[in-house]
Amino acid sequence: MAGNRIFVRVSEAILDTDGALAFISDPAAGGECMFVGRVRETSDAGEVTGILYEAWPELADLRLCALAEEMLERWSCTKVALLHRFGDLSVGEAAVVVAVSAPHRNEAFEACRHGIERIKQDIPIWKKELLASGESEWVMGS
Hints:
Elements: E1 6-11, H1 17-24, E2 31-38, E3 42-43, E4 46-55, H2 57-75, E5 79-85, E6 87-90, E7 94-102, H3 105-122, E8 125-131, E9 136-139
Parallel strand pairs: 1-5
Antiparallel strand pairs: 2-7, 3-4, 4-6, 4-8, 5-7, 8-9
Helix pairs in contact: 2-3
């Protein structure tokens, strides 16, 4: 782990987007980028009433730390925050936060994009959409 340069959390608690942004603030950074993924009201399956996220928190923490270290090294980021929520979430609630600071904006943008894509592919967190029809559907990462 990279000490005070990484903030990782997998939790049932509401995500603190302001706290993530405050964490990545760094005088060596000329750019900050934050992605917030929220539960939306529709999907390919229809109208969504909520999402159930299931997680393996201990393994997810380890993999998020490894991802953050990769981002620090690959893009010379100054700080990285990776947060993901699990449990029952309602439409509009934040499910994931990727926040990055870096010396230049391009590095921040690229690292942030890489972070969310890798989270969707490699972190042991699973998503089940709860539909207005009463049905539910597991969704594969993309």
